[in-house]
Amino acid sequence: MRVRNVATVGGALAHGDPHMDLPPVLMALGATMTVTGPKGERQLAVEDLFTGYYETVLERTRADRRSSRPGAGRQKGAYCKVTTGSADDWPALGVAAVIDGDGTAIKSARIVASAATDKATRLEIGGGRAERQDA
After folding, report:
1. Residue 50 maps to which CATH number?
2. Residues 94 and 112 occupy one common structural domain
3. What are phi and psi of 52, to 5 degrees?
4. Do residues 59 and 86 share a domain?
5. 3-state secondary structure of 72
6. Are residues 61 and 17 in the same domain?
7. Does pLDDT of 122 surpass 90?
8. Closest of 2, 131, 121, 1 to residue 53, by C-alpha
9. pLDDT at 58 over 90
10. Cα separation of 122 and 27, whole Å?
């Protein structure tokens, strides 16, 4: 069951594990996914997928069909994780950041924290410091 839930990009997202590396990266990139179910297809921002610890907005009958993200353009990004062992271990903290700029100024930035939180969480940047968006 675990392999089936996490062996694909859609399965990894649907699993809702806050310790995985992929969700914060896709959230920082502004990725979307198409989910299918009995009522048809709908677009969903990866950022709106997670509701809590191993919980998502997906119904049991829904499945991810495909995911996409905007073109990179001038964006630069990075993902860093802190582990208690090797780089292959599950993170104790994961941080993904994507910055869009023109070389002289930052136009926008998306920062997402995971693993130390109950779900991957985009941080709001305002007033010179980062704050949890859902706080």
Report:
1. 3.30.465.10
2. yes
3. 180, -165
4. no
5. coil
6. yes
7. yes
8. 121
9. no
10. 7
Q: Which tokens go with 42?
A: 């709908």
Two structure tokens written together for 11: 């399965």
Distance in angstroms (rounded) separating the CA atoms of residues 79 and 128: 21
Number of domains in the chain: 2
Taking only the tens place, the pLDDT of each residue in 6-49 is: 567 888 888 899 999 999 999 999 999 888 877 788 889 999 99
- pLDDT (0 to 100) of residue 88: 77
Task: Compute the average pLDDT of residues 67-88.
Answer: 80
Query: What are 79's strand-pairing partners?
Result: 96
Provide the residue range defining the domain that includes 42: 2-68
CATH code, domain with 92: 3.30.390.50
Query: Hey, which residues does 75 pair with through a beta bridge?
Result: 100
**What is the maximum span of the chain, computed from C-alpha positions, in angstroms?**
49
